[in-house]
Structures are given as structure tokens and as C-alpha cells.
């Protein structure tokens, strides 16, 4: 259960990062509210997951999911392009995060 919460918290990290970018310096209420809500859920979930999982591994997995998710959201929103090198590097990041989970 803790791993599931950690993964969902990583997804919420991608949501808050994307919402923060869309908030225009916290001047747009919709994205600002989404940023605040998803940021809170992300941090609370990470904190709870760390009650049973190692802090270093939890944080690395959380950041990795958030980073990959943020890039993928930007690609889906057509704000960034996903080239071959960038896609390969994201894949390496995903493999490293999965590896951390496997050895924990």
C-alpha cells in the first residue's frame, strides 16, 4: 500500500509542477488552486509512504515519477517535444526508479 501511495504522490508532483507552470506566477486562480491541492496531496502522500519505506529511495522514486510525468504532460499538451535522445533518457530514468524499488 505504501508503494501505491508513493506512486500516486509522484503523479501528483507532476500535476502540481504542471499547474504551477500554468498559473502565471500564481495569478491564475484555477491552476493556482490545482497547484495547492495537488502539492498538498503529493507531500502528504510522500510523508506517509516514508513511514514504512526508506527515505532516500522514497524521495528518489517520487522525484523520478514527478520528473517523467511532468515532461510527458508537457509533451501531451504540445508544450515540449519528445525527441529520440530525450525519450531514451526518460526511459533510463524510469528503469533506474524501477531498479531502486527492486532492490529496496
From TrEMBL:
The chain crosses the membrane at residues 59-76, 83-103. The keyword tRNA processing does not apply. It holds the Pfam family Multi_Drug_Res. Keywords: Cell membrane, Membrane, Transmembrane, Transmembrane helix, Transport. Gene3D superfamilies: 1.10.3730.20. InterPro entries: EmrE-like (IPR037185), Small_drug/metabolite_transptr (IPR000390), Small_multidrug_res (IPR045324). GO terms for cellular component: plasma membrane. It is a multi-pass membrane protein. One of its GO terms (molecular function) is transmembrane transporter activity. PANTHER family: GUANIDINIUM EXPORTER, SMR FAMILY PROTON-DEPENDENT DRUG EFFLUX TRANSPORTER SUGE. This is Ligand-binding protein SH3.
